[in-house]
Specification:
single chain, globular
Length: 227
Amino acid sequence: MRILAIDTALGACSACVLEAGMPEPLAIEQVAMERGHAEALMPLIERVMNAVEGGFSSLDRVAVTVGPGSYTGLRVGVSAARAIALTANIPAVGVTTVAACAAPLVGRESGRVIAAALDAKHGQVWFQALSSEGRQIVALRQVSYRDAARAIGAGPVSLVGSAALAVANEAWAIGLDALVIDDARAPDVTWVARLGMIADPASAPPRPLYLKAPETTPQDRARLPRR
C-alpha cells in the first residue's frame, strides 16, 4: 500500500507519501505555521507528489488529520484529502491528532500512561490517555489543564503535545510522576500515514472532529422579519 498523509489541523502544514514496509517516507514536507494553511497546502502536496515515482496515480489511500484542531485548518486538510481521493478513486481515512501524537510512544513507555495534550486555548486542552500498549484509559475530551491531570489517575505518565508541559505542571502539583516527552505543536505526519494504513475506511471517515462548537454563530437577533 502507498498512502498520502496530510496534516493541517494544528501548527503545521504537512504531507508525506509512505509505502507499506518502508521505515521512512518516499517524500515528506512539514512547514511550521499557525495560519495560511489554505494557501500553502496544495503547492506543498504538489511538491511531495512530484518527488514520488508515479505521482497521484500510484496512491492506494489518503489519510488526513480530522481533529481536534483549528476549525479552518481541519476544513482545508479534509477538503483536500476528499478531493484527491475522489479524483484518484481511492479510499480516504481520518486520523485524530491526539492519536498521531501519542502513537510514537505506544510500546515504548512500559508501565506508564501515555497522554496526548494539545492546546485548545483559553486554559483548555484536548486530551486523551492510553496504556503503554495503546488501550484507551481516558477518552478524548476537552478539559482544563487541572482536570486533565486528575483524569490520569495514579500515573506514572508520559506526556506529548503542545500542552504537555501545562498538564505536567498540574500533575506535579498533585504528586504524579510525569515526564514531558515531546511538546511539538503538531504531530509527525509520518505517523498520520502509519495510522492511516491500518484504519478502516468504514469506521474512520475523513470528517472533521470538533469537540467544541465554532465560536461564530448566525446573527439571528439582527435578522429582519420577512414580509
